[in-house]
Amino acid sequence: HNRTLSERDRDAVLHPYTNPIRHQETGPLVISRGEGVRVFDDSGKDYIEGLAGLWCTALGWGEERLVAAASEQMRRLPFYHLFGHKAHDPAIELCERLLALAPVPMSKVFLTGSGSEANDTALKLIRYRANALGQPQKKKVIARDRAYHGVTLATSSLTGLAVNHRSFDLPDPAVLRAACPHHYRNARPGESEEDFSTRLAAELEALILAEGPDTVAAFFAEPVMGAGGVIVPPAGYFAKIQAVLDKYDVLLVADEVICGFGRTGKMFGTETFGLRPDIITVAKGLSSGYLPISAVLLSEKMVAPIVAEAGRIGTLGHGFTYGGHPVSAAVAVETLKIYAERDILAHVGRVGPRLQDGLRGFANHPLVGEVRGVGLIGAVELVADKATKAAFDPARGVGAALVARAQQHGLILRAMGDAVAFAPPLVISEDEIAEMLTRFARALADVTAEVIK
Ligand code: PLP
């Protein structure tokens, strides 16, 4: 090949979440290897991965134990499946470990390959259960504005971001939409976090009553919304939402795809924020992103009717070829062992405040409207006017400019509008957090100079 990787990429690859026209000018950032919290491009330049790839590489790059677990399993049994009464030991062990870790009692685990597949499976099993219980009308689901639950045809409609709907003829109008619990943006003047939470719970109740409680099956929620801008729930939010769901027999699905396995400081966001889910979906950190795998944890309330219905029909007519893939499952088991052995929760407890305090150090900056976060996830939102919270004209692309500057300074971040997210590998050290914040400060100074000039 005489042509560069960048040229070959532009000719061959259609990229997700990328402007394909601009990509022809800019080309890709080609990442060729990783080590710890850093990745290196094809020229050898290093970057701190401020988002752990896509919120997933919790153990950082180069974890040899995961490589060994994969290669051992690859040699012994590279493929098998769980269809038709078959089983394999990595899947069994993984399901046992997930049940043992679950933050609320769970009965069974269904293994899938991605976060989208896990949530899609949750949607299908909710529908299956409704039919099993003789409640065929109780199937509507509620998801929130700015939620991210995936991009399959069904889960895209749960996702509450316009870019995932536009020109795809989505969302499905059968998906009901609840408000995003972002106090900074959506609270009324003077409304406390508690009062805001009370109002959102009342709005949820009004929605359920308007639709008819006998038609509403489930409410989907990320404990901390990730792709929607790192939205940490306001005080009292989930307790008040949970009370409404309980009152109308509406299931709660906790999408722990980002929050699961320590990101918020506890093993699950469910624990950090006091949810009582009937279904939990996990992915990403489950294998530290090393191989694709995800899981749906199901309470007895789900399992009993599903088992009865599948027994009646003769089989559970759902499952993916790669669901619980043995190599992925072996890597996930090893990942969970490492989290326990290295006490990842204690580590996040030690270094999380360093990130949160560091980010809050930018709160007085003239362009910073809000700093938010918990554990090892956070965001800094830039605004045109701090006093009025007025946002920049989206056409200016201020968030994207900040991310581009950060990349020049050796830090990979992700912009969600003008909010920039941080979710580094959970193994990040205090020194590495300090270095990440220094690189961010340089990028913010550059953008400030450009915006204010
Ligand atoms: N749910 C949440 C909370 C996510 O953040 C994501 C991906 O970012 C998904 C679901 C979808 O996961 P996947 O991209 O593996 O399909």
Automatic annotation (TrEMBL):
<dbReference type="InterPro" id="IPR015424">
    <property type="entry name" value="PyrdxlP-dep_Trfase"/>
</dbReference>
<keyword id="KW-0808">Transferase</keyword>
<keyword id="KW-0032">Aminotransferase</keyword>
<dbReference type="InterPro" id="IPR049704">
    <property type="entry name" value="Aminotrans_3_PPA_site"/>
</dbReference>
<dbReference type="InterPro" id="IPR015421">
    <property type="entry name" value="PyrdxlP-dep_Trfase_major"/>
</dbReference>
<protein>
    <submittedName>
        <fullName>Aspartate aminotransferase family protein</fullName>
    </submittedName>
</protein>
<comment type="similarity">
    <text>Belongs to the class-III pyridoxal-phosphate-dependent aminotransferase family.</text>
</comment>
<dbReference type="GO" id="GO:0008483">
    <property type="term" value="F:transaminase activity"/>
</dbReference>
<dbReference type="Pfam" id="PF00202">
    <property type="entry name" value="Aminotran_3"/>
</dbReference>
<dbReference type="InterPro" id="IPR015422">
    <property type="entry name" value="PyrdxlP-dep_Trfase_small"/>
</dbReference>
<keyword id="KW-0663">Pyridoxal phosphate</keyword>
<dbReference type="InterPro" id="IPR005814">
    <property type="entry name" value="Aminotrans_3"/>
</dbReference>
